[in-house]
Amino acid sequence: MIVFFQPSRDYAGGVVVNVAPSSIVAQTMAGVAIETLTHTIDADGHWSVDTTDALYTHGTKYELITTTTTALGVVTEDHPFVHVATAIGTPPGPPTIGTPSIGEEQATFPHTPPPDAGYTSTTIFAIPVLGGTVVEGSGSGALIIVLGLVPGVLYAYLPVAYGAGGAASDPGNVMLATTLPATDIEMPAYLKWWVNDEDEMHEHGPEAFDPSVTGDRRFHDLGRGRTWSLMIECHEPVFFGVRGIGGVMTVPRGQPGGLRDDKGT
Fold it and tell me: What is the spatial distance between Cα 199 and Cα 197, in angstroms, rounded to a whole number?
């Protein structure tokens, strides 16, 4: 692949002069050297090197490190580039996606890949119809999941298949679907409760209650030898129903205790 770069420059006698580097090394972004290169200058005066394609991975970022001796001293510069293979093979046929299962922030698609031998994967691009950030999800199996969607947004889902070397197919069938709206949860809720100990109905609340916080709630101290009843109701804003009420009886160490139902057992 041809990689162009800007050489270092000297300024002398009112003239800017390009200075040829003494060393050019292509390396990974982690600093691992791949090969040493020699520059050329084309008819338009542009400087470049020609990399050995087999030593690089298509679509991966690398950098050229040039070392040049100028009038000001030795100058080392880095020139990042992304390798694009000159021959990336024959693209596969387009994939097919089915009706998705939609959530607030994700969509799961039935997926039929192309039958081509060189097929590697499919990427589904989620494009907001009214503008916004494009999100994508990739896979090669029967289902492909696209994560990171925005609730309540209409997306156009466009599948593209890829082959060896990154060759892209023509787009497959486009699906339109709107993500579910965000769940409207207001916190905290407010609870009110009453404890009846035969003689008196003890009223408490309403009190702020955050159902996302787990832990014990001590409603009332129960006296011995009495029949108790407990009632709880939700107050505004109500966004959940009371599905169950649990209780734990504690008895001081060394003292007898127990519960008896209304049948005497």
Answer: 6
Query: What pTM value is reported for the model?
Result: 0.44
**Quick one: tokens of 67?**
């070392």
Decide if 197 contacts 222 (C-beta within 8 A). yes
Q: What angle do CA 128, 131, 136 make, to 5 degrees?
A: 40
Domain with CATH 2.60.40.10 in the chain: 96-178
Residues 6+ apart with CB under 8 A from 202: 194, 195, 196, 220
The count of other CB atoms within 10 Å of the CB of residue 56 is 20
Per-residue pLDDT 10s for the chain (265 aa) are 888 888 888 877 778 888 899 999 999 999 999 989 999 998 888 899 998 877 888 789 999 999 998 888 898 999 998 987 665 678 899 999 999 999 999 999 999 999 998 899 999 999 999 888 899 999 999 999 999 999 999 999 999 999 877 888 999 999 999 999 987 555 545 666 666 666 666 676 666 655 555 555 555 555 555 666 656 665 554 444 454 555 555 555 555 555 555 554 4
> What is the CATH architecture of 96-178?
Sandwich (2.60)
Integer Cα distance of 190 and 208 in angstroms: 5
d(C-alpha 257, C-alpha 24), whole Å: 86
Whether the Cβ atoms of residue 50 and residue 2 lie closer than 8 Å to each other: yes
